[in-house]
Hints:
Layout: E1 16-17, H1 23-31, E2 45-47, H2 49-52, H3 68-184, H4 213-219, H5 236-247
Antiparallel strand pairs: 1-2
Helix pairs in contact: 3-5
Amino acid sequence: MDTNNMFNGEMFNLNMFSKKLSNEEIKEMARDMCSGVEETHGEVRVMKWEDVLLKTRTGNITEIDTRCKIVHLQVKLQQTEEKLNETLTELEQSKEETSTCNSELESKSQQLNETLGELAQTKEDKETYRRGLENKSQQLNATETEKETTIKELDTVTQELNITNTALNQTQVELKQVKDLLEKAKDCPLNTTISSYWDLLYSTEFFGAVITSHKLEVLTKSIEKLEYFEGTRITDGIIQFFKMFHDGEDQCLS
């Protein structure tokens, strides 16, 4: 303070503000000297009464007990209690929120574990499916190989069947020729003279007997296609057929 200026009187709760206070704010301060309303203005209060009380004093200054300290303490205590209650309420809410968060976190953790289990099962199923697909591919390749082999074998069998059919057709033609010649040889007279090696069949060993493998061994060295007649009984007609067919003697057919 300026020491050249003297002040005579009482001073209490001197505050200076950086803004113009409204009429309502001034009335609120004047209503009760111990209300402490000035403290609600915060940074707008640029000079505070509690700071003035700390300044060096000169002259005859007497402090008067206004009992505002007690009121201020009561007010601050009340405010502190209100803040404490608010804090306790917020703390309780925070505990409830924390409990809710813990429950949600536990639920999320359980869901995460279930998801991880499902993911592991999915990976295992995927691997099983991959192995199954690989086996199916191998089986398919083996089947294709077997198919190609079967087709080749079928082609070979078809070729052999065609050859067999050709031989069968030729045999049927020859058999028809034999049947025709046998039919023509029915009326040939019994030949009692040996004019051909077929006359050997008139001997006791052959005539009237059935052609067997043993008898064929005697004749097949010089006679072709005699095996067609295995199981046939040797008769005069058979002998005449052999003589006409192999010797060119067809007097009975002229």
